[in-house]
Design brief:
Elements (H helix, E strand, L loop, with lengths): L2 H7 L4 H38 E6 L2 E6 L5 E3 L2 H9 L4 E4 L6 H9 L5 E2 L1 E2 L2 E2 L1 H7 L3 E5 L6 H4 L5 E4 L7 H11 L3 H21 L7 E6 L4 E4 L4 H8 L12 H8 L4 E4 L11 E5 L5 H15 L2 H4 L2 H4 L3 E3 L9 H15 L5
Parallel strand pairs: 3-4, 3-8, 4-5, 8-9, 10-13, 13-14
Antiparallel strand pairs: 1-2, 6-7, 10-11, 11-12
Length: 342
């Protein structure tokens, strides 16, 4: 066989060569597209991560805006924390606000839209506000799946009011505002220190009670107001000087317990702070009637604080949950325990 004929046998026909080139071209195209898609996906994920902050909460993880502009709060606690941090909510539950928060909302003008009641906010109103972030406490878990369709949601665990500082810091950390929260708490500490330096010895024993239509409730040292009294170094009556753990074991409640009028000795103290904290006008009127009845009780009249006119009726921010409430309680301590201040 000649060399020419041998070379001819290994020659690829033109139509086969074209098919091979087509295959190779397609393979290169697929590889290029795959690489481009992977690069685009990576860039998109990076962009997403750079535009939001992942936050762990009771329902898992939510990626919240770095600079939220339209915040909705589902309860008074979240609203108070937001206001304390200088965050302007566009909407909030306003039905159960204490007087101090109502004043804060009035200060904000009409910029905070009422979205309904705590535990049952109006989802349509929330949707109309077009929020980019929704904040609330863990008792809103039953509606989480619904509100999470509207905007990213963060629900904070709420154990009891005496842990308000820790919860406030957790709230602030979600926004990357831990420094702002620390400044707020530092200002509170400065006022507490000023109070401690001004109080005269011997320090009065402070009793804290709440009078409602059905009972008298004493508040223990790990309640919201109890923690403030601890910070101020003010002693409590032995019956109220229980930690959250001790109160939970004894009364199945970490911060308060109901007593009947036959045990008014449990409310005894050098001074007594009390308030009416009801959510309806009718309930408030019933509680006021209970106070009027209590004033005629001989056991009540025998209490030293009653005899010395050292029973002080204060607003319901004494069972608040945040720094705005705490500073108002400190105002009352200055007002009633250091009455000669200008």
């Amino acid at each position: 066989m000649s060399a020419r004929s041998l070379s001819y046998e290994f020659r690829i026909p033109n139509h086969e060569l074209w098919r091979i080139l087509q295959f190779l071209f397609g393979l290169v195209l697929v590889l290029c597209l795959t690489t481009a898609c992977e690069r685009t996906s990576t860039q998109s994920a990076t962009l997403l991560d750079s535009n939001c902050r992942p936050v762990q909460h009771v329902m898992g993880e939510s990626c919240i805006p770095l600079q939220p502009q339209r915040v909705v709060t589902l309860d008074g606690v979240s609203l108070e924390y937001a206001l304390a941090l200088g965050i302007q909510p566009v909407g909030s539950v306003l039905d159960q606000l204490d007087g101090h928060l109502i004043e804060q909302v009035k200060h904000q003008g009409n910029r905070i839209e009422n979205i309904g009641t705590a535990g049952a906010p109006n989802l349509e109103k929330i949707l109309q506000l077009k929020p980019d972030l929704i904040l609330g406490l863990d008792f809103h878990q039953p509606i989480y799946s619904e509100i999470a369709r509207i905007a990213p949601v963060v629900l904070f665990e709420f154990q009891y009011s005496g842990r308000w500082k820790e919860l406030f810091q957790t709230f602030a950390n979600s926004f990357g505002q831990s420094d702002v929260a620390q400044q707020v708490l530092d200002r509170y500490d400065q006022r507490i220190n000023q109070l401690k330096q001004t109080l005269a010895n011997p320090l009065p024993t402070v009793s804290v009670i709440r009078i409602d239509p059905a009972s008298i409730n004493v508040y223990f040292k790990d309640s919201f107001c109890g923690v403030i009294l601890q910070d101020a170094g003010l002693p409590r009556p032995p019956a109220q000087n229980l930690s959250a753990t001790e109160a939970q074991q004894t009364f199945n409640n970490p911060i308060q317990a109901a007593v009947n009028q036959e045990r008014l000795d449990l409310v005894n103290g050098d001074v007594i702070f009390t308030w009416i904290g009801e959510n309806t006008l009718e309930a408030t009127q019933d509680a006021q009637a209970q106070i009027d009845k209590l004033k005629t009780d001989p056991l009540w009249q025998k209490l030293p604080a009653v005899q010395q006119n050292r029973v002080y009726y204060v607003p319901s921010y004494w069972i608040g949950s945040g720094p705005i409430s705490a500073n108002l309680v400190v105002d009352d301590l200055f007002k009633y325990l250091i009455p000669d201040l200008p």
